[in-house]
Amino acid sequence: xxxxxxxxxxxxxxxxxxxxxxxxxxxxxxxxxxxxxxxxxxxxxxxxxxxxxxxxxxxxxxxxxxxxxxxxxxxxxxxxxxxxxxxxxxxxxxxxxxxxxxxxxxxxxxxxxxxxxxxxxxxxxxxxxxxxxxxxxxxxxxxxxxxxxxxxxxxxxxxxxxxxxxxxxxxxxxxx
Length: 176
Prior knowledge:
The protein is built from seven helices and seven strands, in the order H-H-E-H-E-E-E-H-E-H-E-H-E-H. With 176 residues, it is of the alpha/beta class.
C-alpha cells in the first residue's frame, strides 16, 4: 500500500535496507489491522511503524512509532506507543544467550538501534525501550550472569541523564 511504502521510505532514510527491514520483522500497521488486535485508537493512524518486542526468545508485545516528520508530530503525543498489555517493565529488548556467555552487554535506548546493530552483525545489543536502566532491568540482567554493561545512549541531554542515572543504579546493584 502507499502507506506501507511510506513506512519503508522512512526506514530506508534511516539507513535500513529492504532485506534488513524484513529480517527485523518491522512493518506497517493499518487502522484495520490495529482494530483487529484491539490496539488503542491512534495505532494505524498516527503510529504506523510496528516493532515486535522480544527478550530471551520470548515475545512480550508490540511497540508502534510515528514516522511523521518532527514538525508534523502532535506535541501532545509521544513518538512511540505500546500495544495494550505489553509488559515493558523488566524486559530488556533483545536479551539473549550471547550476553550470558560473555557476562557483559551493550545497552542502547531504542529497539530500532538494537535491531539494526544485530542485523549488521553486532551481537548482544539490548535496548531499554527509550529510558534509563531500572532496578527491574538490572535484576533480569544479573539473573542471566551479567556483570558488566556498556551504555550507548543517544548523544543528547536526555541520553546524558539516562547514562548518569543508569550508572548509579548499576553500581548500586554491583554491576560495572
